[in-house]
Description:
Blueprint: H1 4-7, H2 18-89, E1 96-100, E2 103-107, H3 109-163
Helix pairs in contact: 2-3
GO molecular function, one term: unfolded protein binding
Region (Disordered): 1-20
Subunit structure: Heterohexamer of two PFD-alpha type and four PFD-beta type subunits.
Amino acid sequence: MDLSKCLAKPSTPERSSTAQCTQESSAWFGEVNFLSKMDKEVAVLQRKLEAELKNFKDSQKEFNKLVQTQQQLDGQFFENKSIMEELQMLKPTNTVYKLYGPVLVKQDLDESKQNVGKRIEYISKELKRCAENINQLEQKQDKYRANLQKLQQQYQSQMALAKQ
């Protein structure tokens, strides 16, 4: 599109007719409007992409925290399981002590078994809850990944159109 002929002085022979200039200028402005529309669409896509990426990164952080919590709970679970096994090997006549701060306090064997059993039960429930949260978060991340791929493809196609 060459608007230089339309912009030439009226007395020069290079100047196109008014009708031709009007057609050329409206075509040129149409391209500009199309490009600005494309720029707006690209900007909107870019914002959507950035927002979706932020959501995905936030879910990754949450996922990492949940995995860390699950690992801690696993450690506590196996520690309490081994304590329960040790308590099961004891005879009713054996003495059990529990550490309260810097002091060892005598505790009934059955009471110790009940306390450890309750801890194991509680930790098991927490592990189950944590695993469910991890599964839900994995599904959420899969949706974010799919949306990111879709938005990225749209963005790339818009950029390719803008270059043409």
